[in-house]
Amino acid sequence: MSEDASTFIAIETPAAASAPRGLFSWVATVDHKRIGILYLLTTLVFFVIGGVEALLMRIQLARPNNTFLSPDAFDQMFTMHGTTMIFLVVMPTLIGLANYLVPLMIGARDMAFPRLNALSFWLLPCGGLLLHFSLLAGGAPAVGWFSYAPLSETSYATTSGVDYWTLSLLILGVGSVAASINLIATILTQRAPGLTIRRLPLFVWMVFVNSFLVILALPALNAAIVMLFIDRHLGTHFFAPANGGSAVLWQHFFWAFGHPEVYIMALPAFGIISEVVPVFSRRPIFGYEFVAASTVAIALLSFGVWAHHMFAVGLGHPMDLFFAATSMMIAVPTGIKVFAWSATMWGGAIRLTTAMLFAVAFLIQFTIGGLSGITFAVVPIDWQVTGTYYLVAHFHYVLFGGTFFAVFAGLYYWFPKITGRMLSERLGKLNFWMALIGFNTAFFVQHFLGLMGMARRIYTYPDLPGWGLLNMISTIGAFLLGASVLVLLWNIIVSLRHGKPAGANPWQAWTLEWATTSPPPAHNFDRVPLIRSRRPLWDLAHPENSDPIVGGIAARDGFVLEKNRVGIISFLITESVFFLMLILAYLYYNNHAMNGPTPTSMLNPQRTGIYTLCLLASSLTIWLAGKKLEAKKHSAFRWLLTLTILLGTVFIIGQGREYLRIFHAGVMVNSNLFATTFFTLTGFHGLHVCVGLIALLILMGLSLAGDFKQGRIEAVKSIGLYWHFVDAVWLVVFSVIYLRLLL
Amino acid sequence: MPASFSPIFDNASSQAAAISDLFKVVLAICGVILVIVSSMVGISLIRFRHRPGSEEPPSYFGNRKLEIVWTVGPILIIIWLFALTARGMRQFDPPANREPDLIVIGHQWWWEVRYPQTGVVTANEIHIPVGRKWLVRLESADVIHDFWVPALARKMQMIPGQTNHTWMRFSVIAESPAAFGAWLRGQVNPAAIPAADSAQTGLKIFQTMTCINCHSLRGVSIAANAAPDLTHLADRTILGAGVLSNTETNLFRWLKNPQDFKPGCFMPNLKLTDAQAGTLTSYLEILK
Predict the structure, then answer these.
(1) Of A357, A494, A709, B155, most Cβ neighbours within 10 A?
(2) What is the interface pTM, i.e. ipTM, of the complex?
């Protein structure tokens, strides 16, 4: 079958504009490809910084009783190294790659929300600079990347380092959530015709599932660090045990984020491997459905394992056993993937390009890291090896030997597409062998150091037999690994200038990003091939041997979604988790009697009930307003909108008066834990109402300007959903705080 | 203490031995899995390399039976591991209604050690008798600390916070019940009374140079629990929670400036002259 009209689908694209030039065009860009490149360049800078921090630590640890770094400097190093690598390197690298590749892989022109995409990117250097500014402002945070309380409270962490940490993570968290909402909306609504969900490339599928992990996990972190910030600056005691707070609650909240976070750092890497291994084995992935389903299983289970970071806290056997069971269960879907990738290679025709070398190393190294993880799930073993270098070895094997080697594989695989030039295979192989030997030398010996009793986060150690030698070996390996990164950088620089031109599909790969030029034009595709299976370009090149059609010839997804609706619903999901954490904190601390103000003494459910009715009525009015607008009754729409705004304002005034009454009774946010949790929960809710009121006013302005006359009323529907959400949250808050008093 | 590769495996208690046995079984299972995966990958790399000029290999999309095998197989393995875990955890249950034999309280950056049955208070060095199971209560005066004696038992956090760094080594000396009893009886005694002139001057320095505000000397004065109890300092093998071994010279150097050895610890540089530090040392050296 020759290339004729039936093998390509003409897609409507605006006339291709000439590529924008100049530095400012990069600053102002909303093109997902440029934003993806900006992400990758930024994370490269932070990767070098985080790597230097690691090497400084390794110098200090190379010999016993060393004095290269003071204890406080060492603590700042491990805090910054961990925070930088997780939030400024691994997460944004994966998001940046997803940003570049997902629209191309689904045959779309750009992400669903290009301007939101740009905002997501710029929050990254903003947050990163803010974090590093702490070095100039009294010292970086020195409390570990997980900032356990009460060490992170002002009595012990006296510099503003923790505050910079908190604020920068809030900023970075907003960026990650925004990027993930964008990816969800893009994947659900921007796919080319014929690309049903069942035909998605596995990288896209895993990024899709991963984006849900992000929007569900990051708000847990945001809630926890908001509470920590309030403790540090408003004198409250969420996590200060000396005044009734709970240090263990911080651990629960943090790890409720922290564990999904490690899967957030793994799933996209799994996606990369799922693309690279098949192409360089010349075989489709073995068992696509099992691999795709196992991704969902991992995502669901990842929310149920967090307290395996807390086996040494003394939570009690029932809890320890529950989390041991879930942690062991999560090994099964991960194992399915490892077996699937290995089986893909079996019987193939393997081409050991640099990308494939990194992917194969990933397979073995990630398996080692995953297996050491299994040893931790066996609780009594965890009781010996948690908090030691055995643990440090484990997570570096999964995060560096795993995820980062996958990133290197992806870099060598997609660099030709992004730049139009091939990376040098000669330098690439040098890069690979140095990285392989350096990484394993640095980290394999750390398993032994942990078993020998070396704890982590110690700035030096005594001259016990073998400790000095193994630490020195680890340091040498780390420097070799650092040198391999220099080789990679050199390869990138040299290849940008003199690399072989790549052409559209240098690897004879099969997914849609290879169906356009390298680099792609601004609008991505002139035309998109016919999509009937998971490998459209294979089908095109091998019409006599094409893949079985997935889902039938006229397959469609059973749904059509509108991107604004998807966007706002994703946003509401993330906000729900944030409120859930605040509600849980309220319930936790108000479960028993305490000194000081109590709900009974301070609150009046009947009065607040009346304001609640106003808020609920405003949901009704905005729903009616939407109906009027659909019927093109603009004047009626505006009246109902005004009524909504008025009812919302009445509610806010009612809240304000309640606050004033409580202040007059001498009760402040730091009076006791009831006051703290009450003000935090109702305060954030009130903030959401105010933001909603502003949004409604903006809608009013748009309506007066005639914006809705053309019938494009998605904005009204989205804000309406947000308003209903705010009301629904209030119903829960009202029940939890006020209705309980009536029981 | 004899040097060994790993106190986790070369251990000295039945609890640690139970963990070590469990660890060996689990490592063996993990080793088998690693060998299987590595073999699949390794053999593929040798047997299934691309030969130039050959055609694309046949497309093979999976084998449902095999996928089920490598789903159910691991499930069976983890059921087994879970059973081992549950069984292994049972012997770590402390008995109900028993008073602790030892109380250890974590401080930044030292360990307060109390023997409640005799009222003995010491720091950074723990003596226990062999052959007995002891209930150890773990508390924290400030942030979270981790208490861990790998040769003997599991690690346990001392809430309320999490330790971050530095010298918090302590010594555990397990001795025969007779030797332990003798040690404990010695520890019960109040601080020795200085006889020699220099030692008496040393005690006066201790009382006037703010030392007694933080450090207790049972029989002389009891301070708020801000610093290690020094009643029997001269008996201990280490100083400063493991920074220095306990010799007269080291004690002198520590007193001259503790920040040299443990920067950031809460004992300030008291700017003692050599003479003052010398007399103070001669007093502290009698505290056996």
Answers:
(1) A357
(2) 0.89
